[in-house]
């Protein structure tokens, strides 16, 4: 088998695995969670689970469980989506140019899960001046009192 055939076989196998993973996610996630995280969708403002959540805790990727944001960095931006002035762990997110609308934006995705989370804008509060505008449907909230139980005990110190 030559090198080109080997590469084609590998690509076909990866495409098949990706399709199978998408099918699993379609059954595991709600339609809006799938639309947002896998199809780069956007949920409605003021009509989503966490836009007005005031509880202490962390927000993780609904697909992979990666820790992404914390209530410590959350603030009310008035947009109707959960907004944060910074990520919990910058290593867990990636940023990409997004030219889908007239105005270019910066898309935010989870690193491991590759879930579409939302966008980051340079109009947030200090200390960063950034506003991470994130879809609730891409997140799972873990309250402070459940961090240990859910395997995120290392983040308890944020709330002490």
From TrEMBL:
Gene: msrB
Enzyme Commission code: 1.8.4.12
Enzyme class: oxidoreductase
Catalytic activity: L-methionyl-[protein] + [thioredoxin]-disulfide + H2O = L-methionyl-(R)-S-oxide-[protein] + [thioredoxin]-dithiol
Gene3D superfamilies: Peptide methionine sulfoxide reductase
GO biological process terms, semicolon-separated: protein repair; response to oxidative stress
Pfam families found in the cross-reference section: SelR
Region annotation Disordered: where it falls in the sequence: 1-24
Family indicated by similarity: Belongs to the MsrB Met sulfoxide reductase family.
Superkingdom, natural source: Bacteria
NCBIfam families reported for this sequence: peptide-methionine (R)-S-oxide reductase MsrB
Protein name: Peptide methionine sulfoxide reductase MsrB
Listed InterPro entries: Met_Sox_Rdtase_MsrB, Met_Sox_Rdtase_MsrB_dom, Mss4-like_sf
Provenance organism: Desulfuribacillus alkaliarsenatis
Annotated active site: 133 (nucleophile)
Record keyword Iron present: no
Domain MsrB: 22-144
HAMAP family for the chain: MsrB
Entry keyword set: Oxidoreductase
One annotated Gene Ontology cellular component of this protein: cytoplasm
GO molecular function: peptide-methionine (R)-S-oxide reductase activity
């Amino acid at each position: 088998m030559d090198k080109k055939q080997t590469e084609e076989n590998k690509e076909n196998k990866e495409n098949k695995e990706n399709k199978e993973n998408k099918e699993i996610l379609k059954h595991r996630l709600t339609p809006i969670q799938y639309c947002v995280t896998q199809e780069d969708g956007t949920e409605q403002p003021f009509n989503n689970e966490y836009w007005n959540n005031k509880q202490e805790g962390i927000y993780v990727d609904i697909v992979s469980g990666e820790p992404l944001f914390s209530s410590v960095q959350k603030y009310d931006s008035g947009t109707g989506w959960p907004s944060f002035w910074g990520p919990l762990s910058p290593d867990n997110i990636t940023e990409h140019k997004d030219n889908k609308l007239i105005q270019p934006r910066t898309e935010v995705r989870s690193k491991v899960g590759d879930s579409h989370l939302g966008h980051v804008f340079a109009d947030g509060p200090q200390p960063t001046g950034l506003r991470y505008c994130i879809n609730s449907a891409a997140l799972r909230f873990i309250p402070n009192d459940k961090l240990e139980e859910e395997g995120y005990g290392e983040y308890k110190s944020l709330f002490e």
